[in-house]
Specification:
The protein is of the alpha/beta class. A four-stranded parallel sheet has the order 1-4-2-3, with helices on one face. The protein is globular and about 40 Å long.
Amino acid sequence: MTIRIVRLGSPRLPDEGIRIGTVRRPPRGVPKAEFATRDFYDVWFPNLSPSAELVSEALAIQGGEGSEKAWRAFERQFRAEMARPDASRTLDLLAAMSQQTNFSLGCYCEHEERCHRSILRALLATRGAALA
């Protein structure tokens, strides 16, 4: 059993399981009834998304304006948000669930290496999650 880290809106893989959207906002222009059928997510869980302020910073970094220093600052701040009790317990739960079932976590960003999902991957790995 594993957790897949995916780009929301990408085609689902066989045995991917439930897809969880770890994004601050639902997809624009997509009716709620179509989120799952259009391969966005089955469940929206913004609790694992960066705060609104950090989302703005991340978008600037992804747009080519950001330096490695800016990315490291974003990563530090997002890790601090994920260290808060509710987020930390959620990550513990997901790591434990990965030992029993397949599911996926995702975001809209094109490149995982400059997306909060790369940090989620690392945080889950340190908790012993089974990752694809």
